[in-house]
Amino acid sequence: MTSFPIVSQSKMAHISRAAPFWLSAALIPLAWFGAIVGGWTVLLLPVATWYLFSAIDALAGTYEENADLETPEEDLFWYRAITIVWAPLQFITLFGILWYVTASGHLSGLEMFGLFFGIGVISGTIGITYAHELCHQRPKLERWMGDILLAMVLYSHFRSEHLLVHHRYVATPRDPVTARYNEGFHRYFPRVLRQQPVSAFKAEAAMLARKKLPWHDRSNPFWKYAALQLGMLTLAVLIGGWIGLGLFAWQAFIAIWQLELVNYVEHYGLTRKHLGDGKYEHVKPHHSWNASQLASNWLLINLQRHSDHHYKPDRRFPLLQTYDQNEAPQLPYGYPIMTMAAMMPPVWRRVMNPRVRAWRKQYYPEIEDWAPYKAATNPMPR
């Protein structure tokens, strides 16, 4: 691995190192400000998450220091804390604003539509990103906080899909989330919405079958997912009636859209080599797009160091390592800009397709026929 500057354990433990990852908390007052003032202020949330952080990225550039991997768990308290407290913060914000705008009636329908679009942006950009981190951890409290965050956007099955399918089968035909070469986001999005819940349920049912248990056994987490999501929907109706339900569902859809935009970017066009008979090479750093932009990694708790996350899924986000272009493919910009580009397929293909072709030449010069990889028609992994 290329040698980047190493941040010592003593520095990692200092609260000042963790503080930038708490910038997401500044989005909470913006949400309430938009709810109270209305008008153009309802757009502050997407403006901040998409454009402000992109501007800081452009000015600040990349961050290429790596944490000392021997940093003990107790030195990561302030990093872990933001992910744990976000669930109650988001819950109070989401349902508090839902109560406020439906009870006060001072916002027009268009203003409420715009406001909950913005809330969906943060419940997807921040909430699901933090849920992703929490669902990878062993402590029950963290996993519960992750489940609660996912229930708030009606996407609880993501935990099963991500842990049991995506990490095992990424960059193979069995992973619905791996975007195929030349597959535009507008085709990708409905495909993953259709395939992911089925894939997640089958993975959980298969695990139960290996224990000689039926799919409907009480240990199937889909029962918990259903109960949590039903609880969220019921609360939305009790607080805001049918309008409250509609606004809640709208923010959930926007959150899911934000998640799948990121999923689309993270692995677009990258594939693991088929070794024959349904066997694929092990996951390596070059099977995910890497990005080291400073501000967007603060916002997304190092999610853009995605090459290392797939290489070592059990690493907590402050310890994720970055790579240079000889070890992992690099995105030209951070996720905020790349997800905006993904919404414009001609722009996306112009930016990313040459990079995918260069990646193929760099890592797999021996592969002459890429058609089965592009169409995801290689044999399913064993």
UniProtKB/TrEMBL annotation:
GO-annotated molecular function: metal ion binding; monooxygenase activity
GO cellular component terms listed in the entry, alphabetical order: plasma membrane
Keywords: Cell inner membrane, Cell membrane, Iron, Membrane, Metal-binding, Monooxygenase, Oxidoreductase, Transmembrane, Transmembrane helix
Transmembrane stretches, start-end: 21-43, 77-101, 113-131, 233-257
Principal place of residence: membrane
Family: Belongs to the fatty acid desaturase type 1 family. AlkB subfamily.
Protein name: Alkane 1-monooxygenase 2
Organism whose genome encodes this protein: Pseudooctadecabacter jejudonensis
Gene it is expressed from: alkB2_2
